[in-house]
Amino acid sequence: MEQENSISRIQNAITRNSQLFEQLADLYKIFADSSRVKILCALTQSEMCVSEISEFLSITQSAVSHQLRILKTSNLVKTRRAGKSIIYSLTDDHVRTIIDCGMDHIVE
Amino acid sequence: MEQENSISRIQNAITRNSQLFEQLADLYKIFADSSRVKILCALTQSEMCVSEISEFLSITQSAVSHQLRILKTSNLVKTRRAGKSIIYSLTDDHVRTIIDCGMDHIVE
DNA sequence: TGAACATATGAACAAATGCTCATATATGGA
DNA sequence: TCCATATATGAGCATTTGTTCATATGTTCA
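YS: structure for the whole thing
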């Protein structure tokens, strides 16, 4: 039943809406970099400010900031200010789901 | 409960196995191109030979072949020969699941 | 065996990407 | 206001990536 919905959804997509694939590819592009995946996984555990992420993952502050910008632009993370820091957190649970999907495939 | 497993799995991954993120990112890289997503979606419907895929998606035979090579190398598709044609199909249902995950996020 | 069809592949090129370095912006406290 | 801390951003650069074009490999059938 759920499978059927999936297939017909994809069929419609292929025949009628080629743009959807760009969107889909663009979404996966975000997860297609190990720095960003690490950041997203880190935020899966708890919200963190930039310097915490940087330290936790051993990635340059600048690099982290650049990647966070991408993540925020694509609405996967949201921010709030706390004093001098800016705290990043996941926008919703989709990220968790998508990472889990991929993880399931890796682990086999 | 399922959420808990997810989180602890990710925590272990971050602290102990940085290589896992490369694998995860590499997996998403495969989905991060619209041609490959289209091909995978097409194969979601039914197995197809190269020229069918090429025609169905309006992508050059050469381009399709190059992408199929990537998909096969990463074990997402398998092949069998039928006369002059080589027929491609999905290796398992993980592809469906992953595409569905992404689709869910797009549709919102 | 030779022609026609089907697929694979290598080289070349343009576009996209992620990092670093330097610097700008913003906040809090002395 | 001045300084230290925190974050963002632009330019430059090296690497990766996807396509095209030409051609090679492989299969069927006359």
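YS: worth flagging: The mean pLDDT of chain B is 88.
IM: good catch. Also Residues 49-51, 61-62, 64-66, 68-69, 83-86 of chain B lie near DNA strand C (CB under 10 Å from a C1').
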